[in-house]
User: Fold these one by one.
Assistant:
Number 1:
Amino acid sequence: MESVLGFISPKILSQILVGLSRTVILFIVSSGLSLILGVLRIPNVAHGSLYMIGAFMAYTVSHLFGGGNMGFWMALVLAPLGVAVVSFAAERSLFQFLYEREHLMLLLLTFAMSLVFGDLVKMVWGGEYRSVPVPSIFQGYINLFGGLPFPIYSFFLLVVGPVIAILLWLLTNKTKIGKISRAAAVDREMVGAVGINVSWVFATVFIIGCLLAGLGGVLVAPTVSVTLGMDHTLIMEAFLIVIMGGLGNVWGALLGSLIFGLTQSLGILVWPQFGIVFPYLAVVVVLLFRPTGLLRSTW
Amino acid sequence: MKRYSFLALASVLLLSVLCVYSVSQAANTIKVGIVDTYTGPATTFTNDVLDGFKLAVQKINASGGILGRKIEYTTRDEKFKPDIGLAMAKELVLKEKVDILMGTINSATTLAISDFVRKEKIPFFVTFAKSDKIVAEKGHRYIFNMNENTEMAGRAAAIALAKKPYVKYWIAGDDYEYGHAIAEGVWDNLKKLKPSVQKVGETWWKVGEADFTPYITQILAAKPDFIIVATGGSGMVNFQKAAKATGLSQKVPFYQHTATELSVLAPQGQNAPEGVYGTANYFFYYPDTAQNKAFVADFKKAYNRNPRIGALYGYMTAQFIAEGYKKAGKIDKEKFVTALEGMSLDSPVGKLEIRKCDHQLLLPMYFGVTKKDAKYEFLTASGIETIQGKDYVPSCEEVLKHRKK
Amino acid sequence: MKNPLLRGKLPWVIAALIVLFLLPVFLDRFYVYLAAIILLTGLSATSLNFVLGYGGVFQFHHAVFYGIGAYGTALMIIKSNLSPWLGFIVGPVVAGILGFVIGVICIRLSKLYFGMLQISLGSLVWAIVYRWYSFTGGDDGIHGVPLPDIISSPNGAYYFTLIVTAVSMFILYRMIRSPFGSALQGIRDNPVRSEMIGVNVKLQQLLALTIAGFFGGVAGSLFVVVDNTVFPDMMFWTLSLELIIMCLLGGWFSFLGPMVGAGIIVLLRTYVSGLTVYWALILGIIMMLVIFFLPNGVLGYLDRFVKKKARS
């Protein structure tokens, strides 16, 4: 606690900035989950597995291209596409038969899928730690506010985050497919009745959601060790964020991620040992006052 | 749909029946049951243990086995869950009737199994769990610790750090038993050896934390001389990456137990941070003795990769099992245990002894700092200081004092 | 009170109990241990199904009650100088109270939101137990819990588990068959209508959650008897999901479904793990098969099968 006295405002500001870069990964993954839950009404527990597959694919692609800068950029493009392909296969073979089922069944089914994916990753990549290096333009750090280092890669993330947010918002609100999917989320039959192939609309939304998970995995890969078990660490947080923010709401996912990321990084200043409790408390508080989430959900 | 339902049910039942059929084993073997985690981030270490063990077993069986019997082993995946680990240990002992148990990387499981084997009187070799309770508080006749524990690692590090000029220390790490134990082990012993050291602060993050930047900025603001970083598992690489990204490794030196190990440095390649202090039990490139080179060559030939610390644990466990029975002269559990007490064998890192009073294997500890190496794609440990096992292990009295409780 | 369905099944139940009592006579020690594990896990799953299957409540983090019951019992035995038998009462009572408290907080939400909030709160409890090393042993857990002599032997532990489980199952069964249970199922099927005919929906659910928590705690304290240890993992969300899977597999519209599901999962896990490292894969595939082809679980399927035969 004595450390709080030593802190002056710039440090809090830098702590906020730092919390934001963590938020970006959370946001990208959660927005995908929110889309799938909001539009397709599927609580996709396998979302974490797709995030992990994205990270592992990033390793493989980056390795294929020599592991340096080229490797990273190729991974950034190809790995999410790889995840999209996997999810397309899963959607066509399994998920498309599930859109009318009850939630609990869907939850268990996606959990089963996450078990399968987890072991498949173990079979394909084995148990070793993998690593994707940060591309050289993003290596190093900038000194903020008097000597506190902020990695350049985190700045990159801070740019990517809002870009994705805006792109998603444009997609869901300004494009035809976005509007159709939001309508279909509310009333599937009606949309089908006006002659739109709802099945393909849902498939598209599902793939975009999964692609976001994979993208999150690729973006996080240079900052952590890519290991088995990555799927479990993120999925609970992603669900809590989605619930906090409002289902199917992209800005809700952003808001939820911000709350999550910031309460953690600021919580560390207040009570270093229990910093991790603050995000969970935030979830509890939010749900008690706004049971359906902070922003409007699609159902 | 009805037909499919029936088919599905039938196949589930068939699967269950097939599973009940357990593979029958030849009599007249020495059965070793291995409970360990082969799922999740710990797998990278436990695969090494198994491979090292297998390598030794092949050799032993090829030269006639132990007292005419071959060693046979079977593994069970506890998935890092202690209740499953304990159930599997019980299955191995009560159903598969193994002679010896080996495992696990999970300290909680190890302690639970330890309790069980004490009642059942089955020798149990601990291969990666590092809780100091294993030989101290919860130690007994049938348990053998084949790797270092947190108290030992802490002492070794303290011996090396006490020689350095740093005074203001910050302690940080993963918020679980292992993290706290390592940190305490290092700090308590350092304070004893060098009373002038001061602790300026502490930080604990959740296990599996991926983003250390907020913690690093907080630590840097306090301007310590040195940081003791108590991470484990994947936290090792995560922290080193964050240290590199924020330039921490250039600003404030820090220490992690196993920072210099291959499993931590190899995945990062040339991008690992330099100047990180670490303690480790094994390097394939040091010491450059004939024994070590032979071991490395054998391992590489069999598994196409360099051996890491787990391989040494597994390899030596097999050797001790073989020699223990040989010295006992017959397949007798009690004679086996007695034979092992105080036994000393040759190994890739020199002579290793299982201490009689607490059954702790006395491994050498290497204190070094990470540095780029022209010979390899990854960083290696340089400036290695070797601390012999007997110099950093707590005395018999200290250990046994815990047991009397 | 005269329940025609029960009359038909009673001889089967008695026969099963006799077989279970004689188990240690003709089975090896390991299988007796396994049977004890199945019984207590089945009880845990049944207590979950009390609110999940019969109440329609999204109880996503039932393992908290199981874990707290275990910790309550273990800590009571170790830390206090009172009779260890008291531990077996304290554990479940604490679990029941926790069930009530968490229920009160979560009750205003429904379905998915209820489940997520329960997970958040449950995770907070887990985090506290995990971090409070000095009191709970942290992630090392507590080992070697001393038990009264009668129940410390493997057979003793088994019989104690059998008796407690049988009694608990009986109590739960009676509650399901009582007006309370009917009201609960009515709320599951149509909460609005139930409200209209005068049922206090929230109160009913709260009571059900307390009861479910209590019996979850009983199962947890039985674990202490059988294995003499507790770990924080016992209240981790993955175990909660496993319990739900057991209910699904066995059939959540039948009373014995969860017990059957527990039996299948424990047996499969024990044997499959001996054959392959990829237990998660196999479990996942089995789950998917069950969800697609046997949505009412094994017992649900058998029930339909039997009814069809009866009709033809």
Number 2:
Amino acid sequence: MSDSAGQATAVSIVVGIRRLGRSWYRLLFFLARHVRYITAPMRRQAFIHFCHWMVLTDVPNEDGGRSRLPRPVLWFESNYDGDVTRYMDTFARTIPWRMRAAWMPTRGFPDVFPSGPFHEWTVDNAFEASHYWVAYPSATTKDVGRALRVRGEVDVLRRAIAGAPPESVAEHWTAFLARTQRDL
Amino acid sequence: MNCIQLSILTAVLDGHRDALRTVLAGLPTEHASPFARVAGTHNGRWVVLDTAASPDAPRRVGGVPRPMLMCSAVIDRSADDWLANLLEELGGDADRIWGHCVGWPVGANRVSFLLEHRVQPSLAFATWNAPVDEVREALALHARMSALAVRSRAMTAAQLHAALDKALAP
Amino acid sequence: MFRTLRWPRARRESGVRHDDIQGNVIRPYALSLTAHQFLQFPDAARGRAWLDQMLASVTTAERWDSKPTYSCNVAFTFSGLCALRTPATVLASFPTAFRDGMAARADLLGDTGSCAPSTWEEGFGTGAAHVLVTTHALDPTALSERLDQLRVLAVAHGVGILSEHQGARLPDSKEHFGYVDGIGQPALANSGVPTYGEGDVGMFERWHNVPAGEIFHGHIDDDGYPSPAPPAPFGHNGTFVVWRKLQQDVARFRTWIHEQASSLGMDESLLRAKLMGRWDDGTPLALSPEGPNTAIASDADRRNAFDYRDDPDGFRCPLGAHIRRTNPRASLGFGDALTGRHRILRRGTTYGPPLPPGVTVDDGQDRGIFFVAFMADIERQYELIQRVWCNDGDTVGVGHDPDPIVGRPIVTGEHKMTIPGPTPRFVSPLARVVTTRGGEYLWMPSITALRALASL
């Protein structure tokens, strides 16, 4: 089993949802899809490659059809940098209320503080991937962000130096370095 | 359209969980992973959800009655194209994996089967919105530019011009 | 659904007991000479008997009426606690990092190649060292007399002396590369020792002292709950110690600075400051980017009063500078949320004679720092700083470039340090100028716990 591929780590958390939880998630996910403010801190932290939440109310059964679950189940998957403890700690400390909103409706959720029980709950409800692969394993989330920004600036540089004499190429290069120094 | 979440959830046949796990654990990894050969794949995983109470799988999840297999990926093309490509690259391994699942068709209609078992995300988040090839190219370009930033301090204008031509070449 | 919610920092604490905590943590000893003895117990009975004899001389954190001629503190490795036949429940309560020991975690720390445990001085990282006795002394006579006493006591109980390491503060509190060292320590809440700018900076630009539980077990930590501690009577008021002997290649450092400064067209003192984050006299670049400022450097309330929020791109203090990596303050965003749980308290000293100014050829003398740091959780605090913030640059915003002073072994040419500015400069190659010569993870118990260990 492998939950990591280079810099990236996979986590799958599957946990039952409590009463009223499904209604809560309907509201929460609707707001999150339409109000950028809700997910903005996740983008700022630049820690997660991709993640998603699924609410399961029925699952395939042994007859080839589907059976309704007695209670809905939340299936969360994430691809992120580092280890799961740092991942949960980072979000607990930076966006505790968003974390509570996301996990409160699940069974056994102990709150984000203190961190010990929260770590244990996360580990207890996490299912390891039997196989995991990433297309750019040596890159962290920030690496990809930096690379895409530099790529944009390279396009500008390329246009600026097309056909230019060597002396002005050096000037454009210096300007490029000044613009991209934070990302190189 | 550059980062689409695709999740396929299938039920595992009674008594097939351990065999399924063995098959998945035996898949080649890293550059030899089957996902590596499928264009437009940011990442991919297979997860077996244990539900039966047994010595090595004591957890029960919310009344889920049997083990489940989740195949999840983030892709930058249409789901049916991607699935068709995945099945092609898996070859016989596709039957060895999904053959442990309820209803897996032999021969035809396998893409349809998988699409019927697709679970849509309630919320999906992606930090970037670029296709796989663009991300890879950007990372390689970044490495070249970063190295050139260091080397360029000792270069003449002509040397820099030549080095840039080389670094910026596609 | 809402019943499980709890508020962070819900609990307040009245204060730490200075008479139960060992000294040199809450406030540093003003004694300039040190000696570190690593000892080995022959068996549990004699180890406890030795400890029983040592108890009366262990220095606490209580204020001195007059400065003593020496101080004494003891800390144990996990193998030392096992050798004393510490109860299994107590041993099991210690976290994995402490139980593993530093050598077993060398890969995590970047102690590979020339820093690998296989190259360490004898006795380190093998489980042979059971206890560290640290002596600080006022003068060479006091130190010598005290060490003689300790050697006699050790022999009397059959306790083996594996190694002794002596150090002394260099003039002006500098370390061998020439930087003032030891400033910028956490100010602990309820310790009676507040210093502005040495705590953590919260979301609304307000400083708050570091909760005692970030350093001492059993006290309220930055999450608002008691930090994990061994069971009573061993629990409260102990702390973990990270002890490392770091050899400094001063000649190589000076040569490298000269080469890089020449190549980059920079003043050497400016380059030195950009690497460290402070000028040689301790003036922080964040407050004085143009040059050292004695008024700031000598003012304990000013020299740490910065949080980098007004320098997001590192034009004053580079993002990859040593002090910015080891204590990012508010530069990771979200106030101190991402840094408040990773503070450590340092009480290291230099060892070895200084290399005379201007000399760039090594004289073969062993010189460096005994890095000594205190914290409640080795993995979350020291190891994260070393592994994530120093050996890599992703979290602090500089890709995978390591700390230029203490980062993992540098592959020549592969990494750089960016000095941001209107015309950025790239320091490369980086040089390995600090080599790990040995180290241990230790637990420094409270006085109560010491008595309990002695009477097991």
